Amino acid sequence: LLTLAVLALTVRPFSQLGSEFMPPLDEGSAFFMPVTVPGISLEQARRILQAQDAELKKIPEVVSVFGKAGRADTATDPAPISMIETVIQLKPRNKWRRGMTPERLLEEMRKAAELPGLQAAWSMPIKARIDMLTTGVRTPIGVKVFGKDLDEIAAIGQNLENILRKVSGTRSVYAEREVGGLYLDVVPDREAIARYGLRMMDVLSVVETAIGGMVVDRTVEGRERYTISLRYPSELRNSPEALGRVLVPVLPVGMRAAGMASAGAPLAKPDGMSDGPGGGMGQGGSSTVIQVPLSQLARIEIKNGPSMIKDEDGSLVGWVYVDVEDRDLGGYVNDAKAAVTSELNLPTGYRLMWTGQYEFMERVQKRLQLVIPLTLALIFVILYMNLSSLPATLLVMCSVPFAAVGSIWLLWAAKFNTSIAVWVGMIALLGVAAETASVMVVYLEQGYRAFINSGVVPTRASLLKAAEDAATLRVRPLLMTVVMNILGLLPVMLDTGVGSDVAKRIAAPMWGGLVSLTLLTLFIIPALYVMWRERSIKR
Fold first, then answer.
1. Residue 302 burial by Cβ neighbours in a 10 Å radius (0-12, 13-18, 19+)
2. β 62-69/84-90 pair status
3. pLDDT tops 80 at residue 33
4. In the beta sheet, which residues pair with residue 64?
5. pLDDT in tens, 383-421
6. Are 452 and 458 in contact (CB under 8 A)?
7. pTM for this prediction
8. Which residues of 105-117 are buried (b: 16+ CB within 10 A; e: fewer)?
9. If 0-12 CB within 10 Å is exposed, 13-18 middle and 19+ buried, where does residue 34 land?
């Protein structure tokens, strides 16, 4: 009854344990990733970057700050100019201000770098890079919106942003503006182009060469090679009005006049046209080139469009980045899913997928649902093959849940979430528990066989005495084994250096489980063994 009561009391702390993929690993540095609107200019992004870096450098625990806006010259870093990445190198912890903790330092850095119009996520460099390479999402949690229309995907993403911002534990949330890019469209006017006797290619060639730039040559400087592009200077193409004044050359007037006279059409010089460097009409006009402003041949418009088009699984996709604080990933996503289900109505043909570290956590949980029962089954088979008794095997297997009692209570007291590291420690504890309990059962079996062969009248008192004598032989070696394991894991539990976050979560199940396992092995297993053998004697 006492055993069942202890197991029942453990259900509540177990239900309060959070879940995560991997515990945070202190890398000795921080990774700051603010995001702004897609249409930001290069100069404005540079000013924001410099202002944030200067504020972060003022914090005493910061050694250096290095920020990057936009993408590098590589296909593996498709970052827009609106995405800023800043690596913050920190001093060793023994050089921090008195009383400073990683949580307080992160909050101080967050306030120092806070600017209107920016949504920022905080991580660590190695961890963030691994997340980006594996899932494409740079925050612990991400939501992918799949559909067939970018405008609708952008609208769903902004609705998700408003919903998730109200969920408890949200540090920041940002939905990518799928159609937030700005584009300059030059739309040719076919009638005007035909009126001047031009072809579409004549106008678009000027747009390509004078505005876009054309590669005309390549220069070799030692081992370096540079392309030479030809286009108008910046002051002649830095606004729609300036672009409208770009001149498009027309066929020589003499050739036009001859062609038009044969058709009986009058020759007139349209407004806005200018003579070329050949001067006036000249004799015959054959050397005169008429130039027409681009604004008379095409419409120049600034329109919104997708800054980056992403597709996955054959569908267009948009991403929503979610950064979490003071919450476990599993609990947060459960609350977020409930909020999204109640407040968001997805159109037909659109779906959501939760990704980031949460995607890995779900995958690991599915595998653990197979690995842990398989481990218990293997332990059971090996024990049965050695003990050749089903009751004895079940008695040893009782150590598994009782050993988990100490692990769960210690994890709950230390406020650790369940993760891969925790489950590694739990699986290791299963083997230790079965080994320790099986040794005790083996000694109790030996004592019972000696008791039966001694010819003593089998009474309850004599059976208790035999079990006590057999169990006493295992007290000292059992305590030595358990105490050595506990003392060996104690430095890990008290460590605060780099890597201790993961090591503690591996050691905590072992440390707490060994304590409850010792009590089980010394008190509960002998009592259960006596109850079993007493019934067998009566039969």
1. exposed
2. antiparallel
3. yes
4. 89
5. 888 888 888 888 888 877 888 888 888 888 888 888 888
6. yes
7. 0.68
8. beebbbeebeeee
9. buried
